[in-house]
Amino acid sequence: MMTGKDPSFSPGTTVSSTLPGYVTLCLALQVHRLASAQFTVTGPDRPIAASLGGEAVLPCHLSPRMSVESMELRWFRSQFSAIVHLYRGGRDQYGQQMPEYRGRTELLKDDITNGSVSLRIRNIQPSDDGQYKCFFKSSVSYEEALLELQVAGLGSAPAIAVEGHQDGRIRVVCRSIGWYPKPEAQWRDLQGQLLPSTSEKISPEANGLFQAEIAIVLTEESNQKVSCCVRNPRLNQERESEISVAELFFPQVNPWMVALGVILVLLAVLLPLASYCFWRQHRAKGWRSAEIYAGTVHTTGVLSW
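Given the sequence above, the corresponding structure tokens read:
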């Protein structure tokens, strides 16, 4: 009778047979843990405002916090290849950057070990307005966040000019340039009430900004003053110029011009008068000299007799 143990129930045999499966399971769990240890990318919860010619900062950070020094960081526009700024391999990469952003971007890395970085864009242009995406990629995962940059700029003070004057009616035009985004323009009376305009034109300029032109027809019976107002709806700010209707129909005369006119009139009168007086005086002297000469001749003739 055999008293040995059945090999099929040997503990050593059982462990050796299940070891490969256990190792495989551990590896699978580790890979799953790494793959599932994803992060989220968060940006601002509201649009970022920037002024024309100024700068903007587009922040993004990871949750949970972790260093992103070894990750790929990418800010781009509508397409993944439309690169605004790229950081990869621990360095800023400018070779694939869009030409319009070259020399204008800087990655702020002060808090990069805590998963927080920001992109600074200098010399803001109208074309910078719109949406951006910040993209973070590690060796096992990637995420992105959407940001919006709102560019705004105030234009010039409105310039008012008269471009027609007939039958007691005048056409007054107001112009202003250098606005972004598209502005609103309107005429107001002295009390701030809106006045109907005869024409309105808001058009883009070559540099991407907008210009406004608005016209109104006024009569002598119109209110004492009217104002032209151009407003930026994004900034909720406006520029305004006003003009008096009386000045349009009865232009005020410059006092210096009046004084100059008076002087010219006086000169026009006095110069001929002075010339005439000089001529009379000179003529009187001539007559006197002639009389003296004649008397001398006469006296000499009498004595000779």
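Residues 1-16, 28-36, 301-305 have pLDDT under 50 and may be disordered. Try to locate this feature in the token string yourself.
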